[in-house]
Specification:
By secondary structure, the protein is an alpha/beta fold. It folds into 2 domains: about 210 residues, Spore Coat Polysaccharide Biosynthesis Protein SpsA, Chain A (Alpha-Beta Complex); about 120 residues, no CATH class. Helix content is about 50%, strand content about 20%. It contains 12 helices and 10 strands. Strands 1, 2, 3, 4, 5, 6, 7, 8, 9 and 10 form a 10-stranded mixed beta sheet that branches. Helix 1 runs parallel beside helix 2, helix 7 runs antiparallel to helix 8 and helix 8 packs across helix 12. The longest helix is centred in the C-terminal third of the chain and has 30 residues. The radius of gyration is 21 Å and the shape is globular. This is Glycosyltransferase involved in cell wall bisynthesis. One of its GO terms (molecular function) is glycosyltransferase activity. Keywords: Glycosyltransferase, Transferase.
Length: about 350
């Protein structure tokens, strides 16, 4: 008998994209499947769409929250209701191929993996880039965690992954957070085996109006705080990953600097860049220099951040903008090559 798969979909104000998302999930070829749909107190037409799908498909369980406490709260509510042996996630502005959960579940059973991953398509405007390994790759728990922290091959998204339910024991997602996917490392800690499959089955849509692409102090602080929390947590149990965790600190403080430059009246942002935090940043610089994880611009930015002076605070955001521009240009060239 095939294992039950539970699919969790938190929803908040994604009316223009929600119908396609849900149509793709209810069209899954895998059986048995349950769908936990969580409406995070949407204020557009999303609630009505959720109700419509729940009424027409008995596999859907609809949970309606009284207020929006972020996607983490929706996922936590769904986790309390799941019945499956495996758990997957879909974001409500994305969509999936009809055989995605068959592909994931059948290979999870075949290889005995605790976490099973498929490739995905990154869609922005009219461009589509396929992101997947050239061949099936199996990882030990430590190797998979390293790849997750590097965020290049295995990335911090919850979607396009299928997890054994036991991995969620004692785990909850942070509420009032946009980037709660950064907590996914907790699911990799008890895993024994991770398999990354070569076929792309998930469609990730990059939308300018989505929460994780907004530019405002709460979103800078949100991502930075979670990066620091992850670094502090793993430093206790995985000191061998120190260079990766120091890179988390570099990324976090770079975000703080960027936010402080864009919002100079925010005293709380300026105060973060002083005292103990400055000391931690200088300590992390030594480990990062030894690991060679930073390029020339990154090292320059790190050195300026560690000065903690007015000049550093003026120059760091400009260097960061240059790094962002360089990465964006590289991605555009990749998309151009991928679509040609």
């Amino acid at each position: 008998m095939k294992p039950l798969v539970s699919v969790i979909i938190p929803v908040y104000n994604t009316e223009p994209y929600l119908r396609r998302c849900l149509e793709s999930v209810v069209a899954q070829t895998y059986d048995p499947l349950e769908i936990i749909l969580v409406d995070n107190a949407s204020t557009d037409g999303s609630s009505q769409i959720c109700l419509e799908f729940a009424e027409r498909d008995r596999r859907i369980r609809l949970i309606c929250l009284e207020k929006n406490n972020g996607p983490g709260a929706g996922r936590n509510a769904a986790l309390a209701a799941v019945s499956g042996e495996y758990i997957g996630f879909v974001d409500s502005d994305d969509y999936v191929d009809p055989d995605m959960f068959s592909y994931l579940a059948e290979n999870a059973v075949l290889y005995g993996s605790d976490i099973t991953i498929c490739g995905f398509y990154e869609e922005e405007g009219g461009s589509v880039i396929k992101k997947s390994p050239a061949e099936l790759t199996q990882y030990s728990a430590d190797a998979a965690l390293r790849e997750l922290l590097a965020d290049r091959v295995i990335q911090n998204y919850l979607w396009q992954k299928l997890f054994k339910v036991h991995l969620f024991s004692g785990v909850s997602f942070p509420t009032f957070r946009v980037y709660c996917d950064l907590s996914s490392y907790k699911l990799f800690l008890p895993a024994n085996k991770v398999v990354y499959l070569p076929e792309a089955k998930y469609h990730y849509r990059i939308l300018p109006d989505s929460a994780c692409h907004r530019i405002a102090p709460p979103y800078y602080m949100d991502r930075a705080d979670l990066l620091i929390r992850r670094a502090d947590d793993l430093m206790k149990t995985h000191p061998d990953l120190k260079s990766y965790l120091c890179f988390d600190l570099y990324c976090a403080y770079s975000l703080y600097y960027e936010a402080a430059a864009k919002y100079p009246d925010r005293e709380d942002l300026r105060s973060i860049l002083e005292g103990e935090n400055l000391y931690r940043l200088r300590a992390a610089r030594k480990d990062l220099a030894a690991s060679e994880r930073l390029g020339f611009l990154g090292r320059l930015e790190m050195n300026l951040m560690c000065r903690g002076s007015g000049l550093g605070r003026f120059l760091v955001p400009r260097i960061h903008e240059l790094i962002v521009f360089t990465v964006s240009l590289r991605q555009k060239l990749q998309k151009k090559r991928g679509s040609s």
